[in-house]
Each structure stands twice: as C-alpha cells, then as structure tokens.
Amino acid sequence: MLLPFAISADPLDLAGVLALAQHRHALQARRDDVEGPGAVVLFVGAVRGRHQGQEVRALTYEAYEPLAVGSFERISGEAAARVPGVVLCIHHRIGTLEVGEPSIVIAAVAAHRAEAYAASRFAIERVKQISPVWKREHLVDGLSWVEGATVDPDDPAPLEEAWRRACP
Amino acid sequence: MSVTVRLFARLREIAGTDELSRPVGAPATVADVWQGMTGEWPALTPYAGSLSCAVNAQYARMTTAVQDGDEVAFLPPVSGG
C-alpha cells in the first residue's frame, strides 16, 4: 500500500501517487465540508541526459530516509499553511536511474488549478532546499557528486523564495 | 558515552563508511561530535561551512545537545529532485 510520503528503491508509481493524493483530498474535503478535488497537478522530475554541458549517462541517488520522509511531511504542512486545503503526496526514488527515469513525483490536489499549481511548484523548490537527498552523476569520465543547497529548514529566506517562485 | 554517526554522499566517501559509533564526552553537542570526526578525518574540515545536521532523524543545529545512544547525521549540501 502506498504512503503519502516515501523514499523508494523501486520505480515510482506515478498513477498510484496521483490516485492516493486525490483520494486523500476527497476524504479531507468531505470531513471539512468544503469543495472536493477539482485540480490535480502531477510533477515528475526525471533524469536529464545533459547537465552543464556534460553528458550524463545515469544518476545515483541516496537519501537519509527517515528525515527525508519527515521533510516531505514538513513541506506538505508548509504548503497547506499557504494553500489551505491542498493535499500533497511526495515520493522520491533512490538508487541508480537511467536517463529519462522519474526520480521524484509530487501530486498536488486542490479544489482549483491555481492552488494545485502553486503547491506543486512550492513543494519541488522546498525539496531541493531541505530534503536530505543526494545525487551523483555518471559522466563519461567518471562519477561526480552534485552539491546544491545547505539545509536550514528554519531559515525564512529560502522558504519565502520557494513561495515567490510558486506564485510568480 | 557514545553516539552513532551517519554520513552521506561525499562525507561518507571521505570517512569510508556510512555509519560508525563514536565516543564523546558528556555533556556534548553535535559540534563536539563533528570536531571528533574532523580530528580523525581532516578532509571533512572544508565541509564545516556548508554542513547541516540531524539528531535522531530530526533537523538539528550544531549547538543541539546529544545524549548517549543518539543518532547524529551530518548532511552535506543536498541535491534531490
């Protein structure tokens, strides 16, 4: 059975994550007597074959699983504080992925499309800021770690930046 | 007392292991554990400026106190997505 937030060594179940988010929104809306799911945005991040001018043959992801799952829960709460009623499900893949394979799936469900799009974009920006997941590129001449953001979930500046990008 | 240290990505490669038990004097903070690590693996030192940490799978700070048996994770800059 799928959980709303997960790290997975297996290929991501895009349709399953979408259906789960939609189901959770429907349940929540019925409980709160508000509008049900009217907009579903599915964001899928996939392995890109070229990065900064270099051919990428594959990516290997690793995660600190319990904290990564906790970060997804946290991001879901941050999104719901800005987009009331939105429901997010986030799954990230680990292991070695070929070019084109999905590495992350985020299902954002809301009553209306503007809310679902904003929550989706906010969530992927936050994952890149605070989720303990790392990738390593398999390049023609060897392996190379990708190092992005320094994690500080309590820093308001990146949080505001993620929300600004979500609502241009 | 001792803590379990978890290392990821390049930090794991530098130390050659993803998990190890480390002795630390009480009372201690995450910073004390990190200092012990850099003493043994000086190549970790440049990461001090970009490092994040967690205690028992919760986000923490270098000033967070650690107890005997805690799991202390050191997180280099992340690159998920």
From TrEMBL, chain A:
GO terms for molecular function: molybdopterin synthase activity. Keywords: Molybdenum cofactor biosynthesis, Transferase. InterPro entries: MoaE_sf (IPR036563), Mopterin_biosynth_MoaE (IPR003448). Its EC number is 2.8.1.12. It comes from the Bacteria. It is an enzyme of class 2 (transferase). This is Molybdopterin synthase catalytic subunit. The lineage of its organism: Bacteria, Pseudomonadati, Acidobacteriota, Vicinamibacteria, Vicinamibacterales.
From TrEMBL, chain B:
GO terms for biological process: Mo-molybdopterin cofactor biosynthetic process. Keywords: Nucleotide-binding. GO terms for molecular function: nucleotide binding. Belongs to the MoaD family. It comes from Luteitalea pratensis. Pfam families: ThiS (PF02597). One of its GO terms (cellular component) is molybdopterin adenylyltransferase complex. InterPro entries: Beta-grasp_dom_sf (IPR012675), MOCS2A (IPR044672), Mopterin_synth/thiamin_S_b (IPR016155), ThiS/MoaD-like (IPR003749). Gene3D superfamilies: 3.10.20.30. The keyword Lipid metabolism does not apply. This is Molybdopterin synthase sulfur carrier subunit. CDD domains: Ubl_MoaD (cd00754). The keyword Nucleotide-binding applies.
